[in-house]
Structures are given as C-alpha cells and as structure tokens.
Amino acid sequence: MPFAQAIMDTVIPASIVVVKASFTGVEDPEAHLTAFHTQMMLSGGSYAVYCKMFMSTLQGTALEWFVSLPTGHITSFQQFSKLFVDRYIVNKALPMVSYDLFDVRQHQGESLRDYLNRFGAQIVCLPGKDEEMFVHAFKKGVLHGPFSESLIRSHPATFAEIRRRAVAHITAESEVAEKRGNVAPNKPWAQTRIQPQRTRHPYDPKKNKGRGPGRPKSSTALRGTSSSWDWQT
C-alpha cells in the first residue's frame, strides 16, 4: 500500500461523511480536489483521514495509478495532492475568458430557467466582472421570444437585473399555463342527424322478362305494385 504506516494505522471516525465525489482519470484534478475539500470540511478529520478518504474517491485507471505507487511512499495529504495533480495535470481545464460567454447559447427545447443557470455558472468561472459584456453575451445567446424582445425594448444594466426579470417572466408564464389548465374544455357539438338517402333498386331481368331496362312497365302492371324507389336511412 502506498501509504506510510502512520496513515495506515489511523482509524476513520464514524462521524466522517462518505465523500460523493469520484475521479476516474479523465476529470479535472483541481476541480476534483476542490469538491473533495468542500465535502470534507463538513466532517473534519486529520490529514491521515484525508488521505484515506481521498483514496476512496479514485476509480478506474486513477485507482490503478494509486496502487502502482511504491509502498509507504505517501506520508502526508499535501504530498498526495501534489502527486495527484501532477499526474493528471493534462486534464486541467483551460481558464475561461469573458469572450467565451458568447459561445454559450440556449439550446432548442431548453427552458429559460436552465439556460439562465448554465450561463450564470459560466460567469462564476471568470476572473473579471464585466457586467456590460455579460448582458450582451446573454442577449446574444437567448432564443428569440417574448423575453428576448423585452431585453431589446429595455436594455438591462447588469446580469443581476436579467436574473430578476427572468424570474418574473418565468413566474408569469407558469401562472398563465396554470390558468389555462383550469379552464373547462368546450362541450363538443351535437352530432348532425344523418339525412335519409333515396336509392333505386337495380334492374332484375327475371322480374322484367321480355322488357328491356329502359322500357317502363305498363300502367296496368304498375297497379298494386310498390314503387321501384325506396327510402333508406
């Protein structure tokens, strides 16, 4: 085992919360370390405990890398962290610049709420706070619709203003949709009664022997017989 004996002998307290973050070898190592530290802050513990808990987050090829380290090689969490970052530094995400925001677009079918949250998450990654650029980038990326038209009519000064107006727009749309759902559907129109149609019996040569289909019966033959026209519905 790569851990020194002092780390191996450390018992993990029962109060330690299991870390949910995981690393398989393709993620950003610094982002993983940040997520790990954030979760461990809730539980505390010594650096020996940190070493064991961090080991539990490694999976796949990352765990294979850890096991391949020399026995007793790791003596502190600081050393463990440096070895980890150096090993997977190639996965580190490039720093985001403000102009990258213009590549953030609302997808077809994506709700305004989801786009707003995704755009806001990108702003957090930026080193500077250029509010004017944030506003222009958001307006360029949002899909055409009532909300985008409202941004054109009244230009917002900050992204915080966009967020407030978006929340109000989403709330209004939800109320309208709820009211439409509560409206009782119209009663269907009563079915129109089918009108009777007049049809004529086909010509029967047995009943009209000796007469062609175009020759009418004599007036004598018509007496006491039903008409060749019937009503059918």
Could you please describe the fold and organization of this structure?
It is a single chain. This protein is mostly helical and 233 residues long. Helices cover 45% and strands 3% of the residues. It is built from 10 helices and 2 strands, in the order αααααααααβαβ. A two-stranded antiparallel ribbon has the order 1-2. The chain is elongated and about 85 Å long. The C terminus is likely disordered.
Label this structure with key terms:
disordered C terminus; 3% strand; two-stranded antiparallel ribbon; 10 helices; Non-ribosomal Peptide Synthetase Peptidyl Carrier Protein, Chain A; single chain; 233 residues; mainly alpha
CA-atom Rg in angstroms = 40 Å
Main beta-sheet strand count, sense and barrel state: 2 strands, antiparallel
Helix-strand category: mainly alpha
What shape does the CA trace take? elongated
Q: Which regions are unreliable across 5 or more consecutive residues at pLDDT < 50?
A: 219-233
Number of domains: 2
Strand coverage percent = under 5%
Write a brief structural summary.
With 233 residues, the chain is mainly alpha-helical. It contains 10 helices and 2 strands. The C terminus is likely disordered.
List the helices and strands and how they pair.
Layout: H1 5-8, H2 29-40, H3 47-55, H4 60-67, H5 77-87, H6 112-124, H7 131-141, H8 146-153, H9 159-182, E1 197-200, H10 219-222, E2 229-232
Antiparallel strand pairs: 1-2
